[in-house]
Amino acid sequence: MSIKNAWIGISTVALCLLAPLIVFAADPTKPQMSREQREAIVSSLKWQSGTITLKDGMAKINLTDDFRFLDGADARKVLHDVWGNPDNPKILGMIFPKDSGPLTHNGWAVTVKYDDGGYVKDDDAGKINYDDLLKKMQQQARDASPLREKEGYPSVELVGWAAPPSYDKATHKLYWAKDLKFGNDPHDTLNYDIRILGRRGVLVLTALGGIDELQEIRDKTPGILAMVDFQPGNTYAEFDPKIDKVAEYGITGLIAGGAIAAAAKLGLFAGLFKWIIAAALALKKALILLVVAIVAGVKKLWGKVTGKTSTPSHLLPPGPKP
Questions:
Q1: Is 248:77 a contact under the CB 8 Å cutoff?
Q2: Strand partners, 73
Q3: Alpha helix positions (H), 100-213
Q4: Of 31, 182, 249, 277, which one has the fewest beta carbons inside 10 Å?
Q5: Of 84, 78, 94, the residue nearest 40 (C-alpha)
Q6: Which secondary structure element, helix H or strand E, spans residue 274, and what is its range?
Q7: What pTM, to 2 d.p., does this model score?
Q8: What is the pLDDT of residues 246-269, one digit of tens each?
Q9: Where are the chain's structural domains?
């Protein structure tokens, strides 16, 4: 599949998904918590250090002394209750700098998720025109903004690459950063995306913070990449084409989807999109069966009225032919 054709499919799904929320944009339907309420939630969080196991040993995070971790339940409290985003059950956890927390001024954090979409082929990595891809993603954001505003969310503008995409073919790790602007907010938002390719899916890490934190996050990214990896049995090199599923997208799709990944309630909207397609196919099949049944019924009725059959003579049982 060419990159151009791949983009057409990506854009179709992306427009459906970009409508919800990009992290760090408050949910307008959620009552704002007081500082005291947020502090109470933060004080209840259970911080972890050392080695963190993800998805029953599929992957591990070997935290250095510079970082600490929140599991999925506590991470959802931060994202939903403290920061006011819609709940996302796919969150596996969050990585914070050791001296930073959910209420730290100019702080930042990294969300951790897993996408089980399959083995992502990386043979398109060296063929991507990132300037052209950026323009498509910017238009995608512009097209989605009216729907966001209609839903009560601020418009979103993809200002540009805060850091252009970079893929390490040896480690199968990809990262890039987006500069985002929400509504009339004078401060831009940074989404720094990291993807680690595995045998059956992709670890999705997104660093969230203000654009002023770009340099610090960029400096920390090599360390974060080194801390997180798939375990034996789940690595990219262990892909078995006889039994493992291949993803329907490549590196282009990961990056284009990254415009949405930090933004979307993927469970809801991706599920809805799949349901719409399935319903359409089911309806099409039902209509075909209905037409066949009607035609068969009319033929049968016509045969009774006329005494004739429309069945070819060579298929009739032995005996007198009509």
A1: no
A2: none
A3: 130-150
A4: 31
A5: 78
A6: helix 266-306
A7: 0.69
A8: 999 999 999 987 544 333 322 323
A9: 3-264, 279-315
